Predict the structure.
Amino acid sequence: MGKKILLECPVYTVEAALLAEKSGVDRIELCADIGEGGTTPSIGLFTFLRQRLSIPIMVMIRPRGGDFVYTEEELEVMATDVRQFKYAGASGFVFGILTPQGKVDEVACKQLISQAGELPCTFHRAIDISISLLDALESVIACGFARVLTSGGRNTVEEGLSAIQAMLMQAGSRIIVMPGGGTRVELLDSLYETGHLSEVHSSCKQFRATHSLYRHPVVNLSADPESMERVLTIDPLVVVAYREKIALLTK
């Protein structure tokens, strides 16, 4: 039997998180604001889920959307969030900090990792907009991250497939390279062939219709008008498809 491949899903709502565990997801990445690609969730949401889920919860630490070059004040907020979520029972943290020149900010990253203590940290897709993907990988390893989430420096895993394969080979056993960002089940074969795939990140998302029976004819309270008519959640059938493919690859 091949080594186990862990499936992680990013979730933004209570409903999605509960359904993720029920559907067979191994670990969740808890975030807010899908429109910005994920920001720090509320401590209330985390506390609620920590009491109800048995699977690990990685917490996104990102004080705002936009770039990944942070001020000293923003870094202080991030450090405070790490300490508070650690105290509340987080399984680990997800963050990424770059210099204005597009390199990994090793000093700032090490400072946050020190706040996390023994809890594992993931460097997220900030690596995909770094000036050199493979150089950034070495910096991430040097910082002491447990894993790196990447779409191979492209918008999707499919587009960055060859780069992810190169990262998997370069990293070897030094760090977990976790493909994520437009991941699809059918891409797992090529990634698994490297011999170093141990985790995969996929949203497995779908939208359900709102339960609201009333829709105001004029007022929109979101930049996305459709958000008032739908709720983001998990598609259990996609999770099952991943589980079946993983079982086939590792049998």
Summary: The first strand starts at residue 6 and ends at 11.
